[in-house]
Amino acid sequence: MNAAGLSESGRCPVCQARFRSEAVCSRCGADLMPLILLLTHAYCLRQAARQALEAGDEQAALAASEAAQNLHATPQGDLLRIVCAAAAQVIRSSSAV
């Protein structure tokens, strides 16, 4: 299940009602908690990727950013993944020399 419908459009993926930061859709009663948890997990993975980059662990950063994108793809998450991939490539290239 992808949470993109909830976060990108700001609407319930079942009935398209506006998301009001509630665990249950105000219109159709759909349980939005699994989507909220998915979004939270993707956010935590992106934070872990940023921390790994800061710590100099490019491979861990790339793995975390890719996992986050697999859970919930966002434009900003894609930029983070690209940065992590570039950092990992630089390290691979410099260690090959």
Write a concise keyword list for the protein shown above.
97 residues, mainly alpha, 4 helices
Walk me through this protein's architecture.
About 65% of the residues lie in helices and about 0% in strands. The protein has helices at about 5, 35-55, 60-70, 75-95. Mean pLDDT is about 90; it is low at about 1-5. The protein contains 4 helices and no strands. It starts with a helix and ends with a helix. By secondary structure, it is mainly alpha-helical. The radius of gyration is 17 Å and the shape is elongated. The chain has one domain.
Structural class assignment: mainly alpha
Number of β-strand runs: 0
Helix content: 55-70%
Spatial extent as radius of gyration: 17 Å
| β-strand amount | under 5%
- Low-pLDDT segments: 1-5
Largest sheet: none
Number of helices: 4
The CA-CA distance between the termini, in Å, is 43 Å
Total count of domains? 1
Mean pLDDT: 88
Order of helices and strands: HHHH
Oligomer: single chain
Spatial shape: elongated
